[in-house]
Write a structure and sequence with these properties.
InterPro entries: Ig-like_dom, Ig-like_dom_sf, Ig-like_fold, Ig_sub, Ig_sub2, Zig-8. This is Down syndrome cell adhesion molecule-like protein. This protein has 239 residues and is mainly beta. The protein has two domains: 5-89, Immunoglobulins (Immunoglobulin-like, Sandwich), CATH 2.60.40; 95-216, Sandwich (Immunoglobulin-like), CATH 2.60.40.10. The chain is built from one helix and 17 strands. The protein is rod-shaped and about 80 Å long.
Length: 239
């Protein structure tokens, strides 16, 4: 996952003024001293300790936190006895995926439905970009793409975000590599390849003509209902 993480150490002692004392940040996994006072003891420039002047507040800013940064970090003050405060950092890897097979074949005139699931993000994405061969199809949640009314995008944002791309009346020009990309890029893009062709390959065909295809709205409702039921079932099991 690639987003800034800030650990905040708030150390106060009513019996002594700890302003001006040396504060150290230590990573418990390997007991590595990240910083002591104004001195930094790591070559990793993502770690940036900071002290707010005239306060008892110290920060450890980790830019572009990675999964391996997870663990316990300790803020230590050079008092006697020693004062310390520990934090457990859990960096969650965001994931995105396009439901279905990696290669989809559809007949001309049918409707293409691609559903992208983005989960385990620190916060919902601002936008979900849909690309075809690096060309942006739409860059925001809208009822229709401004340049092509055959293309619709519906997005629901939350702990698990869902974006559905719907392309009606499929044409050969709609063939290509499709990807959904959350912004900010908490998760790597998800990809799938679509072929619009006159061929017979039922195993790989996405059956989505106007009569039997689900609309993007109904797909969203179906997935959301599944997620709600899943969470209720988990709560029931816990109880």
């Amino acid at each position: 996952i690639a987003f800034p993480v800030k650990l905040t150490g708030l150390l106060r002692d009513e019996n002594r003024n700890i302003c001006g004392l040396q504060v150290s940040w230590v990573r418990q996994r390997d007991l590595h001293i990240i910083s002591a006072g104004d001195y930094i003891y790591t070559s990793d420039q993502r770690f940036k300790p900071k002290h707010v002047d005239n306060t008892d507040e110290w920060y450890l800013h980790i830019e572009y936190a990675q999964k391996e940064d997870s663990g316990i970090y300790e803020c230590q003050v050079s008092t006697e006895p020693k004062m310390s405060l520990s934090f457990f950092l859990n960096v969650i890897e965001a994931k995105s995926e396009i439901l279905g097979s990696a290669v989809i074949q559809v007949p001309p005139g049918s409707t293409i439905n691609l559903t992208c699931i983005i989960n385990q993000t620190a916060s919902p994405p601002l936008f979900v970009y849909w690309h075809r061969d690096e060309k942006v199809l739409s860059f925001r949640d809208s009822s229709a793409d401004s340049s092509n009314d055959r293309i619709k995008v519906n997005t629901v944002k939350g702990p698990t975000s869902i974006s559905v791309l719907e392309i009606r009346d499929a044409q050969s020009s709609d063939s290509g590599n499709y990807s959904c990309r959350p912004v900010p890029q908490y998760a790597d893009p998800a990809n799938t390849t679509v072929h619009v062709l006159n061929g017979e390959n039922p195993a790989a065909m996405q059956h989505s003509n106007h009569k039997n295809s689900l609309t993007s709205h109904s797909i969203l409702l179906t997935i959301l209902a599944f997620l709600v039921l899943k969470r209720r079932w988990i709560v029931f099991l816990i109880r």
